[in-house]
From TrEMBL:
The keyword ATP-binding applies. The gene is nnrD. This is Bifunctional NAD(P)H-hydrate repair enzyme. It comes from Halogeometricum borinquense (strain ATCC 700274 / DSM 11551 / JCM 10706 / KCTC 4070 / PR3). K(+) binds at residues 55, 120, 156. Binds 1 potassium ion per subunit. Gene3D superfamilies: 3.40.1190.20, YjeF N-terminal domain (3.40.50.10260). It holds the Pfam family YjeF_N. In the C-terminal section; belongs to the NnrD/CARKD family.
């Protein structure tokens, strides 16, 4: 099963991994033509009703594979308004070869005749809300025919994620959907087939640019993009400051650092962008937990661990906190060893490197494919998300596992893990935990790659922080 959002991401990743969308469209169109050949003999009349997006584009391709049939193409709207280059190129290809194409500007004038088959390619996953005109009237016209209706990807007007329609929708007999089943199609009264359109498995496994789908809402208020609490510091001061600055650069609106009073001024001194919330003493201990729990409740995500150290009292405090916390937390560094022993309702993203993973009781292997299996089962056992850092980062929630390949050997320098934890914390304010971890790893590696490209090796963790906004930006 794949949702429309994931499908769009995978599609974009396929392009980044060398399989352009136009190639996918060619396979989609071919699959639609196969479905028509399955239900009608050569010579049969086929009416293609196409919209101006890529759903229509798939059908234009199908037409070239149906030369044995009597095909008429009805484009809803003027050719100049076809909204994507690849759909327009496929339309132009039909016109250049003198196929029977008609453009429909007044839906009342849509004369479909009495075809044996209708190919419904008005709208696919790009639909929002109820069908507008001319699509609504065209859908009714299609439903009034006796023809067998083959829908491209999803019956026009139906939401592929929910199976519901906000208004009139095409009543399809068959649906040829692409790559994977869609959650909304199972409930329909139609025969659904899934066509393999040649999207490489890598486009789902490896994190790529398609995963950067923006989550910024149009109506933005302070706090909408997340408030992150970093709990860290004591024996170290740089680590929590790096996590906090990374969280800001990764898009959080407000980031506070809860740290021992002894280091509060030092941490504040790193940046005027930080808000510091000191607790007594020079290291975290159980007496601080009630205060931290109350503070955490005012934040979307807590990043726990950077620079906390591993004193027994500190680790006890980490355990106490996690046992009462029910929100989302990124757990890093010394705090990680506590996770396997705590019983918590919190959603945790644990970010160990190989050594920390072993200390948590996890296993590793030289071969990254073997490692993905080990990480996936350990994540399932823990009941938390794992982001295991390495040349190939492995991210798993025990069910879905992703691999990130961005980054370079320069990133073994100190502090890059703190940057990753903060980045992931900010992203987890607006995405699910597994996706936040995957995108966090991807963006961090991308930031590191950009730094090395500009300056060569000799990378600093702060170089990553500065490059996060660009690393997280979607290429339009
Ligand atoms: N994902 C893939 O791997 C592939 C998908 N293919 C096909 O592409 C469509 C999705 O294409 P897209 O261009 O994004 O959207 P649509 O064609 O569904 O529609 C966009 C078009 O429709 C207008 N619109 C939106 N809502 C409405 C409405 N309620 N009434 C009228 N018009 C509406 C909007 O303005 C746009 O202009 C997918 O389903 C597949 O069929 C690729 O071909 C192969 C790879
Ligand atoms: K359709």
């Amino acid at each position: 099963m794949i949702t429309s959002d994931r499908m769009a991401a995978v599609d974009e990743n396929a392009e980044a991994f060398g399989v352009p969308r136009k190639q996918l469209m060619e396979s989609s169109g071919n699959a639609v033509a196969r479905a028509v050949r399955d239900i009608a003999d050569p010579g049969a009349q086929v009416a293609v009703v196409a919209g101006r997006g890529n759903n229509g584009g798939d059908a234009f391709v199908a037409v070239r594979f149906l030369d044995d049939y009597d095909v008429t193409v009805h484009l809803l709207g003027r050719p100049e308004t076809i909204s994507t280059d690849i759909a327009r190129e496929n339309w132009d290809a039909l016109e250049a070869s003198e196929y029977d194409t008609r453009t429909v500007t007044d839906s009342k004038a849509l004369g479909l005749g009495d075809p044996d088959v209708v190919v419904d390619a008005m709208l696919g996953t790009g639909v929002t809300g109820a069908l507008r005109e001319p699509e609504a009237t065209a859908a009714e016209a299609v439903n009034d025919l006796d023809a067998t209706v083959v829908a491209v990807d999803v019956p026009s007007g139906v939401d592929a994620d929910t199976g519901t329609a906000a208004g009139v929708a095409v009543d399809a007999d068959r649906v040829v959907t692409f790559h994977d089943e869609k959650p909304g199609l199972a409930s329909l009264d139609a025969a659904v087939t899934v066509a393999d359109i040649g999207i490489p498995a890598a486009a789902e496994l490896f994190v790529g640019p398609g995963d950067l789908h923006h989550t910024r809402r149009s109506q933005s208020h302070k706090g909408d993009h997340g408030e992150v609490l970093v709990v860290g510091g004591g024996p170290y001061t740089g680590a929590p400051a790096l996590s906090a600055q990374a969280a800001l650069r990764a898009g959080a609106d407000l980031v506070r650092v809860a740290c021992p009073k002894s280091v509060a001024r030092e941490i504040q001194g790193y940046s005027e962008n930080l808000i510091v919330r000191p607790f007594d003493g020079d290291h975290l201990q159980p007496s601080h937990v009630d205060g931290l729990t109350a503070l955490a409740a005012d934040h979307d995500v807590v990043v726990f661990g950077p620079g906390l150290g591993d004193e027994d009292a500190t680790l006890d405090a980490v355990a106490d906190f996690l046992e009462s916390y029910e929100g989302t937390a990124v757990v890093d560094a010394d705090a990680l060893q506590v996770v396997p022993e705590v019983d918590t309702d919190a959603t945790l993203v644990c970010t160990p490197h190989q050594g920390e993973l072993l200390k948590m009781g996890g296993k590793t292997a030289d071969d990254w494919r073997e490692r993905t299996d080990l990480v996936e089962s350990f994540a399932a056992e823990l009941g938390h998300v794992l982001l295991v850092k390495g040349a190939y980062d492995i991210i798993s929630d025990g069910e879905v596992t992703r691999v990130n390949r961005t980054g370079n050997p320069g990133m073994t320098v100190g502090g890059t893990g703190d940057v990753l934890a903060g980045t992931t914390g900010a992203l987890a304010c607006v995405r699910n935990a597994r996706h936040a971890a995957a995108v966090g790893a991807y963006a961090n590696g991308r930031a590191g790659d950009a730094a090395v490209e500009e300056n060569g090796y000799g990378l600093l963790a702060t170089d990553l922080v500065d490059r996060l906004p660009v690393a997280l930006r979607r290429d339009e």
